[in-house]
Design goal:
The protein is mainly α. Helix content is about 55%, strand content about 5%. Strand 2 and strand 3 form a beta hairpin. Helix 1 (about 1-10) runs parallel beside helix 6 (about 105-125) and helix 7 packs antiparallel against helix 10 (about 200-215). The longest helix has 28 residues, at about 70-100.
């Protein structure tokens, strides 16, 4: 995962001029269906080597310490293992990539993409926090209105976010029939009901707006990095089986679209 190291080096003013290899990306190209490409996992899979775990060095939870506090001898063994098995994997994957005719894809597309992603991640994405703050107020008002409409249709207040309570309202109290299908409050079931039952349409509308409010409108501003005023998500090359990039911390690739909001 040399992209991570490039960020660390850049933070200290060191510009890496060339990338020779990345075992994580090589592993992904050779086995895109697999979602485990870490150094520890690959060392175990390819060489039956159980590497020193970072948890063994620094612990976990409240007792976790900084790597600075670990004796240098122990850190030395840990780092040496990382270097050793990265080099072993490089040698192995080099020949496997050639054998599978993946060398051109690896060297001409995947490796040159890494500095591009580093630049994108460091530049970040601007977020109009003022606009989202305004939108938050509008969404909360809409949600309150829809919530009241759902209660009126149900004949009583209940926790709309609770599948159990919602199921009791729809299928026990209102006696809504879904034929032979298992009683469920999943979106696909509610979609089939919304033409005949206004409450189903209102619940779908409520869920859509609530996800927008809780996952994006009120959460994304909390993920803005103070020093830059931007969001700096991570673009991953080694996650999807199809080869497209994936985005995390936060994921900006699944924001709902094609609605007024």
């Amino acid at each position: 995962n040399i992209k991570y190291d490039m960020h660390i080096l850049k933070n200290h003013g060191i510009q890496l001029k060339n990338i020779a290899f990345d075992t994580m990306i090589a592993s992904y190209l050779l086995n895109p269906q697999n979602n485990r490409h870490s150094l520890d996992h690959l060392s175990l899979e390819k060489f039956h080597k159980v590497k020193i775990s970072i948890k063994d060095l620094i612990g976990t939870g409240k007792k976790q310490i900084s790597l600075r506090e670990v004796p240098i001898q122990d850190v030395g063994h840990y780092c040496a293992e990382d270097v050793d098995y990265t080099c072993r994997l490089k040698k192995l994957f080099e020949s496997e990539l050639a054998k599978e005719n993946l060398s051109q894809l690896f060297y001409e597309m995947e490796l040159p993409l890494i500095p591009v992603l580093v630049a994108m991640e460091r530049f970040g994405m601007y977020l109009d926090q003022e606009q989202l703050h305004t939108m938050s107020g509008v969404l909360r008002q809409k949600l309150e209105r829809i919530e009241k409409e759902i209660y009126d249709l149900a004949g009583e207040p209940f926790n709309i976010k609770s599948p159990k309570q919602l199921s009791e309202i729809l299928f026990d109290k209102l006696q809504i029939s879904i034929g032979n299908k298992k009683k469920s409050t999943r979106a696909d079931i509610l979609e089939t009901l919304k033409q005949d039952y206004p409450i189903a349409a209102k619940i779908l509308e409520f869920r859509g707006l609530e996800k927008l409010r809780s996952t994006y409108v009120e959460t994304l501003p909390l993920q803005v990095y103070e020093d830059t005023g931007r969001i700096h998500c991570t673009f991953m090359q080694t996650v999807t089986a199809t080869g497209r990039l994936s985005c995390q911390d936060p994921n900006l690739q699944n924001i709902p679209i094609r609605s007024e909001e």
